[in-house]
Amino acid sequence: MKRVLVFGATGTLGAPIAVHLKKAGYDVIAVSRRKNDNGFFSEHGIEYINADITAKEDFKKLPDKDIHAILHFAGALPASMEGYNADLYISSIIQGTLNVLEYTRHVKADRIVFPQSLFDISYLFGTKTPIPADSLRKAPLEGDHAVYVIAKNAAVDLIEHYHMIYGIKRFILRLSRVYLYHPNPYTFTDGKKTLISDRYLIYRAIKGENIEMWGDPDRILETCCIRDFLQIVEKTLSADTEGGIYNIGSGGSTLRERIEGIVEVFNPENQKSEIIPCPEKKDCQQFVLDISKTCKELEYVPRYTWKDYLLDFKNDMKNQPFAKLWGYESDFTDGNF
After folding, report:
1. Which of 18, 179, 212, 333 is the most buried (most CB within 10 A)?
2. Where are the alpha helices (DSSP H) in the chain?
3. What's the pTM?
4. pLDDT averaged over the chain?
5. Contact, 300 vs 290, CB < 8 A?
6. What one-character DSSP code corresponds to residue 91?
7. Distance CA 293, CA 295 (A)
């Protein structure tokens, strides 16, 4: 079995990645700055190591040979940052990535997988024209994502440098939002706690309440179900290519499709939510990613629709597969919205 190491393994993407790769036959080592994983990874036959990527001495805890791939999913996120602390982006994303790259070089790992921010191409948002993977990376200079994207771009540049000098294959995954169930229904916008928009709609549908459909219902938002994302991650580990930047998406879905799907999947029997068009209200920000490079070079075939995601969400909401690691909804909310 090839051995892979997942940094940020207790996170929203890191945990599913670690579990999926173990099931796919890899020898997985899960790494996170969280001191205790509550026994989650041992239940899946995965070794867990507590290490902080910003602390160089912590890398001495890790294996020093026989690592095929590094999956680097650690680092601060705007979505989980209360208030604002730009230092966390610099330390965890830039310095942390440099430390991870030095470790990658030291153990002679063949490749590294790294998530890039979608907002490096936000200047191209607003149309239904698919945005190519190799579009110019450019950070916004305003807003709560500015320093985050600046740091992400710097990390990508560091990875490219190590690719050129040391021959480390690199797979930079530009993420649209990857859709999966997490018990925490909140995110942070401009440092303030807010309910995730589609979670709000799901809660209303569960109660059979009416749902407003704002703006143009045919605007497209890119989507990627967690199962398609995991398919891509797995393919990066065996791809016979030097890698590059790859868009992560599926072609998107319209606001109308999203709301109709939520109503269909979550409404109680005999209690259908009325969908109320509100064209006068604010439009959503639309964008679509060109995934042709991902399909060609990684042999990616999108398989899961928005409705598939909703059905998975409903099932995970019931069965709570990551509760030992992430907790329950009741740990984050009292249920009043």
Report:
1. 18
2. 14-23, 40-43, 86-89, 96-106, 146-166, 197-206, 226-236, 255-266, 292-298, 306-319, 323-326
3. 0.96
4. 96
5. no
6. I
7. 5
